[in-house]
Design a protein that fits this description.
Blueprint: H1 3-11, E1 21-22, E2 26-27, E3 49-53, H2 59-66, E4 71-76, H3 94-103, E5 110-114, H4 122-125, E6 128-134, H5 143-153, E7 154-163, E8 168-169, E9 173-174, E10 184-186, E11 200-202, H6 204-213, E12 218-223, E13 235-241
Parallel strand pairs: 3-4, 3-6, 4-5, 6-7
Antiparallel strand pairs: 1-2, 7-13, 8-9, 10-11, 12-13
């Protein structure tokens, strides 16, 4: 496939969520992740099994393999339309498959499955050394139950990235969040980002406490942006480790 052919295939898709570097200097036209380095995912994942939840176009699935993972399994249930996409704009696994093809990963080493987080058990795909759950938690109606499901399949490290309520409240505005309180803000409609699939935003301390309660001994947390000035920057990260 020539660079021109690849660019044409990429352009044929109406929406890309991830910006993924492909061979030939080609990058898909998404916008996420805003700052991949802020996730602090280890550079060396040699020999590890990785589960990527809410994989979308597959940025972190492919990143795990680039970092040496023995196998990466992606799941998504395609329930997020970012508040404005039409059904025909969400191309399910088609963007993922294109990137997997171009990057040269086979379907066994780089699997993808349509599955909800609530259906995960150790019997589904086994257990994993690393579990990525990026941009998912605040879309879930039952976030604590979901974290328990992740803990059941994770033997090592869990990374969660989510909208957080430290600096922003959908009901009180920017700069009027909940700081270090252990609380979650609930959105029964489309109060957060005009997206009806956004259900909750925990504070960073709340999210860390939830991960610890699910069985992770060591929990670290940080903000994507220390002093966010716009809603997409109001994001937090939790890294839980089982020892």
């Amino acid at each position: 496939m020539t660079t021109e052919e690849l660019e044409a295939r990429i352009a044929a898709f109406p929406y890309w969520y991830h910006k993924i570097e492909l061979p030939g200097g080609v990058t898909t036209p998404g916008w996420a992740p805003i700052d991949a380095g802020a996730y602090r995912v280890p550079v060396d994942l040699s020999g590890k099994r990785v589960l990527d939840i809410g994989a979308w176009d597959g940025y972190w699935t492919f990143e795990a393999l680039k970092r040496g993972a023995a196998q990466a399994i992606a799941i998504d249930d395609f329930s997020d339309f970012v508040g404005h996409l039409e059904t025909e704009d969400r191309k399910a696994w088609e963007t993922f498959d294109l990137c997997r093809e171009v990057l040269g990963y086979d379907a066994e080493q780089c699997q993808r499955h349509e599955l909800t987080i609530y259906d995960l058990t150790p019997d589904t795909f086994g257990t994993f050394d690393y579990v990525f759950c990026f941009g998912v938690l605040y879309h879930l109606r039952w976030p604590m139950y979901a974290i328990d499901k992740l803990s059941a399949v994770c033997t090592g490290d869990l990374f969660i990235e989510s909208a957080i309520a430290d600096d922003f409240s959908a009901y009180r505005g920017g700069g009027k969040g909940f700081g270090s309180d252990i609380v979650m803000e609930f959105y029964p409609n489309n109060e957060y980002g005009e997206n009806e699939t956004n259900w909750w935003a925990p504070t960073l301390k709340c999210m860390g406490s939830m991960v610890k309660a699910s069985g992770f001994d060591t929990v670290r947390g940080w903000k994507l942006t220390d002093s966010p000035t716009r809603l997409p920057e109001c994001r937090g990260f939790i890294w839980g480790t089982k020892t």
